[in-house]
Design brief:
Blueprint (H helix, E strand, L loop, with lengths): L1 H17 L6 E4 L12 E2 L7 E7 L4 E8 L6 E3 L8 E7 L4 E5 L10 E2 L11 E9 L3 E4 L2 E2 L15 E2 L12 E3 L8 E7 L1 E3 L8 H23 L4
Parallel strand pairs: 1-3, 2-4
Antiparallel strand pairs: 3-14, 4-9, 4-15, 5-8, 5-14, 6-7, 6-9, 7-12, 10-11, 10-13
Keywords: Signal
Protein name: Pre-peptidase C-terminal domain-containing protein
Organism: Funiculus sociatus GB2-A5
């Protein structure tokens, strides 16, 4: 009877925790995010869904380390979140370009990924999201990572482009180019993104299972101790 009561109590605890709403984060740039992988801003030490990133550009670029979940479609947009000419860039964990966008269709000056070119990673992992003002671009040791005006005049400003620039087969080194839009405050709205953090922390469902197993183990240990001869 006592064991049944303990199991029932554990079930009530697990059910209560599982009914809690999932937390989501909004992140505001701390100090000034860097422009390279080594100086990119890591968003958090606790992984959770990330709704947006806000910050300030002053003639530079900001790079953020994020976590994308396999099977979930990534998106990022500054539409409605900035009043200067933005550019958005996504890189993999090693700094190789995934894709970029300058102008969101129907929204002069703002950027959106993925638009008509969705990106859904097959495996979860670390990525880097960059933002800059036009025409300050990411480059590798070989040149521009993404095709860009004026070197690629046939590429439409509202196109989502892959890493097919002169330096597209090499990882990000820095940002360079003419700063034609000095920047200002921005908010990037996101989907399919988590804060980078410690990705080894269990998912909520796993954590609940661990909690239940731990409680059962403690109960059994207590019963075994009580049954020892005095």
């Amino acid at each position: 009877m006592k064991k049944l009561a303990q199991i029932t109590a554990i079930s009530v605890i697990v059910a209560g925790l599982s009914s809690l709403p999932a937390q989501a984060a909004t992140f505001t740039e701390s100090d000034d995010a860097g422009e390279t992988l080594s100086t990119a801003q890591i968003l958090s030490t606790m992984p959770m869904p990330l709704q947006s990133i806000s910050g300030m550009l002053s003639g530079d670029a900001d790079l953020f380390q994020i976590f994308l979940t396999g099977g979930q479609t990534f998106s990022a947009t500054t539409v409605g979140g900035a009043d200067f000419d933005t550019q958005l860039f996504l890189f993999d964990k090693d700094g190789f370009g995934v894709y970029s966008n300058d102008e969101s269709t129907g929204s002069m000056g703002q950027s959106t990924l993925p638009m008509n070119n969705p990106f859904t990673p097959t495996k979860s992992g670390i990525y880097y999201l960059g933002i800059s003002g036009f025409d300050y671009d990411p480059v590798s040791n070989k040149g521009e990572i993404f095709p860009d005006f004026p070197d690629f005049p046939d590429v439409a400003f509202d196109a989502v482009v892959g890493a097919t620039g002169f330096g597209g087969d090499s990882p990000l080194k820095e940002f360079d180019g003419a700063i034609l839009s000095s920047g200002g405050s921005y908010t990037i709205a996101l989907t399919g993104v988590q804060t980078a953090g410690n990705t080894s922390i269990p998912e909520p469902s796993s954590a609940l299972g661990i909690l239940a197993l731990g409680a059962l183990g403690a109960s059994r240990l207590k019963n075994q101790k009580n049954n020892l001869p005095s």
